[in-house]
């Protein structure tokens, strides 16, 4: 297998205005591809998506991307996808929290924006591939089939947020940073050697459309405050909140519980009920999950047949855990070899076979390891 395209391609490089996407575009051009840079305008108010090192998509980000394209020597455009981003990512994010689930907007953006809306437009204009600064690898077999693999450097691997890509999307994806066995400092040094002014630009953090990092405030502004009870496992009221949508399973901070636990230990969010606007809290051990079901599976290749043993990743920066998984009537049924903690409906589970990404699905229900409880 190879991860190097065998012929020059017409490549559309998605340039966020950051260092990774700029170096990726530069490497693609250096490899002999015909590269055009594009910055995605994802906000109707482009001043609103960055506060310091948080967020992205401001006018200044588009200018940084343009300056990088000029240095690389490639054409550059700004494409307005703000409406699609609002509908497919931001509105979905709000709706998922309102329903008591915990979404991952980065996966949603890759699935619906970068490798759907952007890719469709690129193909219509005659481009062969979309290039991004993600750290992951696409390996191509001799027969032309493709596999998505973890990056060479596990510390920077971003294959989890690409686990929603299907065969068609992988066939038109290019990740020039995937084979990089270097630190982020060395990527910045490469950017500086290339004369890219973004070499010292801070990385963006957290959710790009919540520039100040205040997810609860963001949701409250859109859904309104709705006072409700915080209860313990017995149903006793131990506190109050201003909207169940502002919590996620496994959360410890910001609970505002006035009554201490009998054992004096911290309490965590165990369950969120949007129907009665109630948040249930309890001990950390009650978060242990032994099994789950997941819906809307997407496969980076052929769908598995029959039960199999894999490793699974449950968060963008989480570790791997061994699981047994089987697709039953379109639903992925997963059993953990050892219980894992703090798994929330709405999150994505991504399955791996070694370094190969098998596919992903959205967690629908979980089975707790204690007393067979489920969420």
UniProtKB/TrEMBL annotation:
<keyword id="KW-0694">RNA-binding</keyword>
<keyword id="KW-0808">Transferase</keyword>
<feature type="site" description="Interaction with tRNA">
    <location>
        <position position="134"/>
    </location>
</feature>
<dbReference type="GO" id="GO:0103016">
    <property type="term" value="F:tRNA-uridine 2-sulfurtransferase activity"/>
</dbReference>
<dbReference type="Pfam" id="PF03054">
    <property type="entry name" value="tRNA_Me_trans"/>
</dbReference>
<keyword id="KW-0547">Nucleotide-binding</keyword>
<dbReference type="InterPro" id="IPR046884">
    <property type="entry name" value="MnmA-like_central"/>
</dbReference>
<feature type="site" description="Interaction with tRNA">
    <location>
        <position position="347"/>
    </location>
</feature>
<dbReference type="InterPro" id="IPR004506">
    <property type="entry name" value="MnmA-like"/>
</dbReference>
<keyword id="KW-0820">tRNA-binding</keyword>
<dbReference type="InterPro" id="IPR014729">
    <property type="entry name" value="Rossmann-like_a/b/a_fold"/>
</dbReference>
<dbReference type="Pfam" id="PF20258">
    <property type="entry name" value="tRNA_Me_trans_C"/>
</dbReference>
<feature type="domain" description="tRNA-specific 2-thiouridylase MnmA-like central">
    <location>
        <begin position="217"/>
        <end position="282"/>
    </location>
</feature>
<protein>
    <recommendedName>
        <fullName>tRNA-specific 2-thiouridylase MnmA</fullName>
        <ecNumber>2.8.1.13</ecNumber>
    </recommendedName>
</protein>
<feature type="binding site">
    <location>
        <position position="133"/>
    </location>
    <ligand>
        <name>ATP</name>
    </ligand>
</feature>
<feature type="region of interest" description="Interaction with tRNA">
    <location>
        <begin position="156"/>
        <end position="158"/>
    </location>
</feature>
<feature type="active site" description="Cysteine persulfide intermediate">
    <location>
        <position position="208"/>
    </location>
</feature>
<dbReference type="Pfam" id="PF20259">
    <property type="entry name" value="tRNA_Me_trans_M"/>
</dbReference>
<feature type="domain" description="tRNA-specific 2-thiouridylase MnmA-like C-terminal">
    <location>
        <begin position="291"/>
        <end position="363"/>
    </location>
</feature>
<feature type="binding site">
    <location>
        <begin position="14"/>
        <end position="21"/>
    </location>
    <ligand>
        <name>ATP</name>
    </ligand>
</feature>
<dbReference type="InterPro" id="IPR046885">
    <property type="entry name" value="MnmA-like_C"/>
</dbReference>
<dbReference type="InterPro" id="IPR023382">
    <property type="entry name" value="MnmA-like_central_sf"/>
</dbReference>
<comment type="similarity">
    <text>Belongs to the MnmA/TRMU family.</text>
</comment>
<feature type="active site" description="Nucleophile">
    <location>
        <position position="109"/>
    </location>
</feature>
<feature type="binding site">
    <location>
        <position position="40"/>
    </location>
    <ligand>
        <name>ATP</name>
    </ligand>
</feature>
<keyword id="KW-0819">tRNA processing</keyword>
<comment type="function">
    <text>Catalyzes the 2-thiolation of uridine at the wobble position (U34) of tRNA, leading to the formation of s(2)U34.</text>
</comment>
<keyword id="KW-0067">ATP-binding</keyword>
<keyword id="KW-0963">Cytoplasm</keyword>
<keyword id="KW-1015">Disulfide bond</keyword>
